[in-house]
Structures are given as structure tokens and as C-alpha cells.
Amino acid sequence: xxxxxYSIFGAGAAGLYTAWRLLNGTPNDSDTTAKGKQLVxxxxxxxxxxxxxxxxxxxxxxxEAGARVCTWHYQNDKSKSYLEVGGMxxxxxxxxxxxxxxxxxxxxxxxxxxxxxxxxxxxxxxPLFYLRTKNMYLDQITSSNPAxxxxxxxxxxxxxxxxxxxIENLAVTxxxxxxxxxxxxxxxxNGRINVDLPESSIFQKGDLLKDIGYWNLMFDQxxxxxxxxxxxxxxxxxxxxxxxxxVAFDANNEFTPGTEYKTxxxxxxxxxxxxxxxxxxxxxxxxxxxxxxxxxxxxxxLQIDGQIRYSFATRENPNKKAGTKxxxxxxxxxxxxxxxxVAQATRYEDHDGVDVLNDQKxxxxxxxxxxxxxxxxxxxxxxxxxxxNSDNPPPYPAQINSYExxxxxIESLSMQGFPGAxxxxxxxxxxxxxxxxxxxxxxxxxxxxxxxNRLTIPEEEMLLKTAERNTIGxxxxxxxxxxxxxxxxxxxxxxxxKIYGLLAAYDDEMFTxxxxxxxxxxxxxxxxxxxxxxxxxxxxxxAPPIMVKMLRAQLAAVxxxxxxxxxxxxxxxxxxxxxxxxxxxxxxxxxxxAHYNICDVQQKIRKPSQLIPGADANIxxxxxxxxxxxxWVEGAYCTAESVLNDFFGILPLxxxxxxxxxxxxxxx
Length: 668
Fold this sequence. Notes:
The chain is α/β, with parallel strands linked by helices. It is about 30% helix and about 20% strand. The chain starts with a strand and ends in a 21-residue tail after the last helix.
């Protein structure tokens, strides 16, 4: 039997995960064809990367690994403070059968021995808002001090997230509706408005939510002002666009207060460095030939005479075919825009074989993913001028100080001589570990209840100093910076100069254009078309002075009030931006459109030849765009895992009984 070749196009989350699981997966003995599909000694595993990620010393690159995850360190020094200018967190899973969270990401982090670097991604319990030129904290929004919106039924007297709850109550309440992953999948297919609505409402009881645009529904139920308040106050314009209402009901639960997230102290990109290193190691152990091709993109792909033939192009000339090869299976580990670029190469020419990507039904399903551009700008400062405990706090500081005991805090307390018996008791208390406390009195009381003893004054001071956290926020505004996220001094090496970082702008949808025009400035002329601006592959780009000044002006309004001058915010040490509206991603994340059965989309689009009568081509699509966890690394991992389980006979990495990786169709 001749050796086989497997080809993966895209070296982001889905591509790396696919390569990793092809090498470490266990074949299912009950699948008679599974063993023959596994990679063995002499087989070839190809990984193509349009960019050149900085994976390791042998494979250096222009930016940190992770595709739409991109960690940026101050002065590009990994020992110094960092910001996440792409994806930045995951929802931790406790490994219980009923536990929530991102199960595959959590498992990968454990299996790669990265859980030692996992820390809570704290969110403020009392975030700062700057809406319609009014500065206010969440706990200040009351009936006597409403938000500056004329919302029906006194809706401006509560959190802007209340709008999400109002819409959700049309079909889901705290005591009814889906709660498990499988139940939500059924809801995507069958969820309906189940309350009586007045005749004046556009939508009525019994209407299928998957066939209703979320913006349409919000506007109908909340009115113009209620929609505007929820839209501005939740920070993400992408949450309130006209996407699939059934999916939006579930997804917007993620952004309500109380959801716990984690990240890695080594930067979220480090997960992908570890994956790449393990791929190289596993390939060597198995005798599999692993070929990594940076600066090379998939140009076109067809199935001709039962063989998958693909052409590739180089970074220097990405639109022209540089060569053609044959493979036994191909994974398109890429988002919608990049897939369409591949399809365009054969869309308007005569050719032999099956053109899977240009089939009408495949195109229909590809269009189910709405591209959502996003933009992030990071800044580093000498001091945390925004903090409520800084030397000279602003009039409206970020209320981000809290106290939380993590594994790192436990280790530090042990080294400082904190009583061992206390440390043992605290470490075993799941109600205390990794639970943030905004109030010092409540925090000390919880610790003393756990240890069943009173702390001495020195012990209290040691505990408070070690457990103090001053991240993450965010603060939210309706100005174009939209969200401010405070990373603080998070350097691995705390012995050097203290450098404090924040995302000065975290926005999406139409706000990306605001910043894109400032990338050049009033005296600059655009020299290359935006369609050829591959900044996302190169890495964070230095912001020009005009952008920095605009950022400082808006940050000043958020923290110093609407009349503040931009000079209230100090000059940053370094400012860089990532424009995720640029190719080849053209989106920071994706959302499902209305009028689709997304369960069927998830099942069929991962092997799109399933949509073509009589066709069977080993061309697969994996990634977050068509997943059950859009906008998350988890979605990329889950689509990749489902393909390997269902089409290559590899046993699941974790038990999927309570956690379907993608939605089954016809769920009850």
C-alpha cells in the first residue's frame, strides 16, 4: 500500500488541532475502516500557513501564533507585560459531566501541561459606562439616576443587559427552556416565541426564532431607545445585529455578569506554540513526515477522477497559481472569506472534476456565516492611571480592584510564610478558590470562615497584597473605542520595570471603519488596495500619532468626563493595532444568519460534498465560523474533533455524551 498524504490549509486553532489529533488520536476498533485512515510511518502530513507565525526557534515568524488569537508583548519581549489583540479567553470546565465551559480547550490546556499558567480572567462587578456623554457605574443606574435613554417601562433604570433578558423571556426563563448543550441545539431548530404578545407586536406567539432577525426582534420588543441602550451598553455591536435569534438567545448568555473565564499568564497564543511543538514531537515519534509550509496559501481545490487536486500560491503572489499537488484528504481550516477566495479561483473557468466549493447548495450554506469585522488597539503605560488605587486616580476610575485566591496566590503565600494549615484549608475550598471578591471585608470574612480562625494583622496584609487583582473590566462606551479592557502589569518577570497595558479600543462592526481611516492620517495616500493589506498576518502595527491622539481623547472622556482634554491621559509608551476586517480573515468572528437550520449547516458544511448528490470528496471545512461556538477557539476545536470522529474513526478526546461537539439534527 502506498503512503498517503493529508493536507491542512490554515495553521490557526482548527488547523493545529486537526494535525495534533491526527497524530495522537486512537482509532475506533468498531470502525473497520478506521485503522487504514490513521497516519503511520512514511505518511505525509502537510500544514500550510498563509502567514508565518512565530512557533518556535526553528520556525520563527512575524507575529505570535493563533490566527485570530494574537498575544502582543511590550517591546515584543515575552518576559514583559502583554495584551491580547485577538481572542483572549476561554470558559473553564471543571471536568464534571454536568459542568459548563469550553471542554476541549480546557482539556487541551491540561494535556499540554499549560493548566499551571491558567488564571481567572476577572471581570468587574461594577463596570464603568460612558453613554451619551454621561459617566456612570452600574450600581449608580437607578430609578432616580437612570441611563440617558428614554426606554419604555423604565428600562433605563437597570443594567443595559436587561434588554437581553427581556428578549430571552419570550421563550426562555430561569425555570424553563434549554439548559444543556443538546437542548440548545434542539432550540436552534424548534425554538419559538411562547408568550402571548399584543397585536401591535410585529412578531407573535408561535413564530420560529431561527427565522427571525435578532435586530428585528429587539427593535420590536424594546423600541428604538431600548435597542439603542442595550446595543451601546453591552459593548459588542456584533451581539445585536440582525442574526439568527435562536442562536442569539444562547450566545448572549455568555456576556451576562457571572460567567467565569480564564486565560494563560504566558499569553493565549502560547497554547498554539505548545500545540505546534507537540505536533513536531508526535510526528517524529510515529515516523510521519511533517511538512510545514509558511507563506503559502491554498489557491484552488477540485476533485478530479476521485483524487483531490489542489493548487497553491506564495505570499509574494497570492493570486497566482504556483504549483499543483495531490492529496488523499484536505482540511480547509479557514474562515468564510478565505474559503471564498479559494472558490473564486475556479468559479469562472471551465475545468474537469467536482468543484465542491462552487456548488449552489454549498454556497448557500457557506453564506450562513455572517462575517463580523473587529478592531483592537493596545497601549502600554508607565502607570495604571485608570485604576481606583493609582497615585492620582481619575474622577471615574475603573472599578476593577478585587481579591481572588488562585494557585499562583497559594504558591506565593507559601513562599512568604503564610501558615501552612491555612493554605491547605483554603486550597481545598472550592467555594473560595478562584472566586473574586470586590470588598475586602467580605473577602477576609470568607477566608476566616474557611480556616475557622482569625487572621492577624500581618496575615491580613499579606493575604490582601498577594490576592489583589486589578484587571480586567471592561468599561463600555458608545464612542468608537467601545470597550476598554485593563490588562495591567501582567509580566511573567515581575523583577523589571512595571509596565501597564490596556486595550484602549475593542470594537466591531461599523466602528472598525472609524479607526481604519486613522491608520494613514490626513497627509497620507493609500498605496495598496485594502484587499491586499495582510496586516493580520504580519502582526500588530504601530499606531500613528493621529490615532493615538484620538484614542487619548476618547479615553479621557470615559475616565475624566465629557469636557476633559486628551492630555488628561498620559502619552503611551507603545501603541499598536490589529484590524481584523482585513484579509485573509475579514472578520474577527462570525455569527449565523436567520432563516437557516444551523444544525444541518454544522453537519453538512464540515464535509460539503454531502450537499452534492452523488459526490463524495474528502474535503473538509473546520473552524469557528461554522461551529456551535462561534467566536471562540472552542468552536474551532469542536468542528475539527467532529470531523475526525465521524469521518476518520478517531475516538473522541472527551466523552461527548453530554457535550455534542456540533449540533445533531432533529434533536428533541
